[in-house]
Design a protein that fits this description.
Blueprint lengths: L7 H14 L3 H4 L3 E4 L12 H10 L3 E8 L5 E3 L35 H4 L26 H11 L5 E6 L12 H15 L1 H4 L2 E5 L2 H10 L4 E6 L40 H11 L4 E4 L23 H9 L3 E2 L7 H10 L3 E4 L2 H10 L10 H11 L13
Parallel strand pairs: 1-2, 1-9, 2-4, 4-5, 5-6, 6-7, 7-8
Antiparallel strand pairs: 2-3
Helix pairs in contact: 3-5, 3-13, 5-13, 6-8, 9-10
Length: 390
């Protein structure tokens, strides 16, 4: 098991090394266009090819998720389980492995060696029919992702890295302490020039509290939506803005959202995020889960992000970067509110919209260099077709 507290020397190294570099300021001058899971509408999600496409789109920030394997390795992957619509088994990691097949198993119950047998690049999921697939592509560790980006570009792109933890169903993932220790070890190992460009985000605010306590210079982003603000009204019902329980939410590190100052939910959400020292408020930007329609132009649309939320967050010194926004009408609505960034599955398309709105954007990476590094560093199964998307 991982130690839950990093050594005092390592903590001091992170604090001291991060402060003087300030690499992130070179990219924070740009509007924060983030490629969600690299850009899952454009290439198979959470893989090196997806991050390559994000760099070619000229994102400010590569957004990604991290799971923690049974043997404590941070792996770049969104889901708590190995999803059969995204990955295929190729072979067991060793003879007579009783865990095989691995598809359908929880990441927390699989070792890195077992996960490295999976083909997570062949399947184009239904919701993203235009995404490039890269057959045979294996999932990458957090360290391997950093190696690829370091090879692919000299620009100080930013990283928004989510710890995937479920505080409602605590046996589905490793603990917040395990995540913070494992991720912190990788961050420290990458050096100050990378550390200063990282944001740790999570829906489970317990992890963010631990991050700030152990690594005060590391930025944090408080993810939220209307299903995480409140207690579920029953064991089987997810709360939202219109139907929810009362009292502290498991997702908000025990904060009772209704106990905070503010005439609107938006104000209280911002104050809640500030109370855990978050640097960024990252709310759902498409629509509230209470909304029966998804586009701001349609009757009955209920937004989660509103002017009071953005204004309150800004007054408290936080940025607002909504996720995951793919509809142009909704993006324009959010830009009018004054948000500081957009997380999208389609960073190339969103970039065009932002250019038309006069936003100052990061440069696109060099295609020859990016694809050369992808060919060099991507790992594939025996049946794989390295770096050939279609």
């Amino acid at each position: 098991m991982l130690t839950t507290v990093f050594s005092a020397a390592a903590i001091l190294a992170l604090q001291a090394s991060a402060s003087p570099i300030k690499q992130r300021w070179a990219y924070e001058k740009y509007f924060d266009l983030q490629g969600h899971r690299g850009g899952r509408g454009e290439a198979v999600e959470s893989t090196l090819p997806a991050f390559a496409w994000g760099l070619l789109a000229g994102v400010t920030t590569l957004e990604m998720d991290v799971g923690l394997t049974k043997d404590g390795v941070p792996i770049v992957w969104h889901d708590e389980v190995i999803d059969k619509t995204k990955c295929k088994d190729s072979a067991p990691a060793f003879a007579n492995d009783t865990m095989y097949p691995y598809v359908g198993k929880n990441v927390a119950n699989l070792t890195l060696a077992q996960i490295k047998t999976l083909d997570c690049g062949s399947l184009r999921i239904d919701g993203f029919p235009r995404a490039e697939v890269y057959p045979g592509t294996k999932l990458s560790t957090l360290d391997e992702m950093f190696d690829f980006v370091q090879c692919a570009t000299s620009d100080p792109v930013l990283f928004n890295i989510e710890s995937k933890i479920n505080p409602d169903v605590t046996n589905q993932t490793r603990s917040p302490a395990d995540f913070v220790a494992a991720m912190g070890k990788v961050f420290v190992g990458r050096g100050a020039d990378v550390v200063d460009r990282i944001t740790h985000q999570s829906f489970d605010w317990r992890a963010l509290v631990l991050s700030k306590a152990q690594y005060p210079t590391l930025r944090t982003a408080a993810l939220c939506d209307d299903t995480t603000l409140y207690r579920n009204p029953t064991a089987t019902t997810t709360g939202n803005l219109t139907v929810h329980g009362t009292g502290p939410s498991n997702w908000l590190a025990g904060i009772d959202i209704d106990s905070l100052q503010g005439a609107t939910v938006g104000e209280r959400v911002a104050r809640a995020a500030k109370s855990i020292k978050a640097d960024i408020l990252s709310p759902v930007g498409s629509a509230a889960y209470a909304s029966v329609v998804q586009d701001v132009s349609l009757p009955g649309y209920i937004p989660f992000v509103n002017q009071s939320m953005v204004d309150t967050a800004h007054s408290l010194g936080m940025e607002v970067v909504p996720w995951t926004v793919d509809r142009k009408n909704n993006i324009e609505y959010l830009l009018a509110l004054g948000v500081d960034g957009i997380i999208s599955d389609y960073p190339s398309d969103v970039r065009i919209l932002l250019e038309r709105r006069g936003k100052y954007l990061a440069p696109k990476a060099n295609e020859e260099r990016v694809m050369g590094c992808l060919k060099k560093l991507v790992q594939v199964t025996k049946e794989g077709l390295p770096t050939r998307g279609y």
